[in-house]
Amino acid sequence: MEPRIENLKEKKLIGLNVTMSLSNNKTLTLWQEFMPRKREILNGLNTNLFSIRIYRSHQDLSNIHSEFEKWAAIEVSDFDKLPNKMKALIIEEGLYAVFLYKGSSSDHSIYNYIYGTWLPNSTYLLDNRPHFEVMGEKYKNNDPDSEEEIWIPISLKR
Q1: Predicted confidence band at 60 (pLDDT cuts at 50, 70, 90)?
Q2: pTM of the full predicted structure?
Q3: Which one of 51, 88, 117, 147 is separated from 111 by 20 to 30 angstroms, measured CA to CA?
Q4: Pick from 67, 63, 59, 74: which is nearest to 136 by CA?
Q5: Cβ contacts of 120 within 8 Å, gap of 6 or more
Q6: Does residue 117 sit in helix, strand or coil?
């Protein structure tokens, strides 16, 4: 599976976030809190959902106890109307490898391929920026026919 390489333009997002680790996974709770409230965000650009992970360092990817920031968010035009207890996030412009993933969101083997096979054999290095998934109209949670995009921050090897 080869990704498309894309230079992402800055994105503004509004959502909820939580600090967690893979061993103390709070993803379900985060989305259960966000989904009923997403309609409070009045300046959304589309219906896509963003699941974002912000790591402190590259080493955090391999340690199930390392904490990272997890977001449930949508893209917005501006931060003028920030709902109560929601936060603003900017994903800065940068290079990303974008993988179209088809399958259940509970199957994490795609990440083993991305980080264990594709990245080491590519001309890119992992960059220290947010990692995220874009879940659009074809996304169906835990359904084998689901589709989403996985965005991995990269930079060219020197």
Answers
A1: low
A2: 0.92
A3: 88
A4: 74
A5: none
A6: helix
